[in-house]
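Consider the following assembly input.
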Amino acid sequence: MSKSIRYRELRVFAEEIRVKTLAEFGYIGFGHVGGAMSIVELIALLYGEFMRYDPARPDWPDRDKLVVSKGHAGPAVYATLAMKGFFPESMLRELNQGGGRLPSHCDRNKTPGIDMTTGSLGQGISAAIGIALGDRMDGRDSTTYVIIGDGECDEGQNWEGFMFARHYALDNLIAFIDANGQQLDGYTRDVMDTGDLAGKLRAFGWNTIEADGHNIEKLYRAIEDAKAFKGAPSAIVMHTKKGRGCSFAEDVLANHHINFTQAQLDEALAKANEALEQARAALLK
Amino acid sequence: MYKVLDKIVKSEELMRDVYCATLMELAGKNKSIVALDADLISSSGMKPFFKAYPDRAIQCGIAEANMIGVAAGLSLTGKVPFCHSFGPFATRRVCDQIYVSAAYARLNVRIIGTDPGVTAAYNGGTHMPFEDMAVLRGIPGITLIEPCDTVALADIVRQLADVYGVYYVRMARKNAMSIYEKGSTFTIGKGNVLRNGSDVTLIASGIMVAEALKAADMLAAEGVFARVVDMFTWKPIDAELIARCAEETGAIVTAENHNSLGGLGGAVAEAVVKTVPVPVEMVSTDDRFGQVGTEDFLRKEYGLTAERIAEYAKRAIERK
């Protein structure tokens, strides 16, 4: 299969995830929409192409692991896990329901396929390092992926982890920085300017790649390059838009956690479905 | 089964050497055991382990938060991590990492915090945890242990190879008073009655166990018969034993090298008021910060003495 067709298939998968995630938020009427939407293409690439996993065995030791350090983006991952058969799609109705299995932030004990409990920002990198280190000690060729928000990089623990991962040359670890430029209280440059994150990661000795986080082909190539790199961990700084592809969230500053109306949801779903149809049409060309 | 030595004397072995030797013995049998430290292996006595098992010894640098998270991640792959730092940096500095990445995530992590309370001596207030157990006590499911001597330490560390969950061990590094005969075994979650008595129960932990035994001797000379309990597990607290002691002796004194707020005193009092309410007096560092000094100076400064225990015992008996 040509790469071009594969990219178009993955675009379809990404738009399916976007529609499914919006519908999932729609069951409860609020949620961390912005940060879930900005990682949709990445999640499509991980579960559609790069990660090794078996939905029937979520604890399979040889699987690749994903730590969603920005744990509030869980809903995008839940929708994907459901589509891949980790649990029935009907379970997406449990998002944020008391006693449900899909909490607002990722929980490894509640949701099949979620590898690590996250939500207290800054901690995912360290857990991902421990997983990558444990896999390497036992000779497993698994890759551990971790998704960190750019606002989350305010937390100092990330930088402890970045230093550690380079010191131990963890080339089975790939970190994605979701550089959407926004955090809860506003633009990252106003709240706490994280500066040149790629430059900082390079200074920490990481193989650092920058890519458009919504461009399937460019992100695909970045992940390929990261996987091939040996001797140091890799970071992909993804330039993204918070709320991407959700009409009531995109271009809204306060889109970290949103309450929305049925009308807003209907409009967003209509547009997301339109994007999905366009992606499908492109595939048939 | 445990047996108390006839004579309580200072051990010739350092607690940290026994810890390291025990962990090496376990690592020889169990390939999953890994050790992590935060630039303190010279203090924790773990150099021999790091030399013998370089592939399973992880130097984390001065970055305790990351160390706890790495340990949690390692346990996710089946490793059994033992992390070390000084007590304050192994607990209050990393409370949220222990809470979320280890405990809430239901992972399998052991944390060793050295230099409890006044044993931090010349390192002073910044390094002197009177609150390490209190900081962690509110974490659901965590187990908090303070072994009083090398025999208890070795037996408990051996058990930690095979249990699952988050365990914090509060450990003095240097020579402790020997309380138990070699070969004694310990049940985590159960206190040990070291001496029987009918007038009052002295419930102690760590360095205060030897002081409580001394206080019991002092009280006996005055015709007061004190029961002495080594409550080496602070959580889960042995409420059954506490209720029995309350019932049978009618008064309790707790003794800890720690703040009684959220500490052993608090834990015992909670058990007492829920079972058999009797007077409880608490010998502790009280609600104070640490400071520099020799251990002897600090023991006197904070009233961690047999004399204060004996005085509080009489006070508790008067309140019956």
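The interface with chain B takes residues 61, 65, 67, 107-109, 115-120, 122-123, 125-135, 137-138, 140, 156-157, 160-161, 163-164, 167 of chain A (CB under 8 Å). Ask yourself how this observation constrains the way the partners meet.
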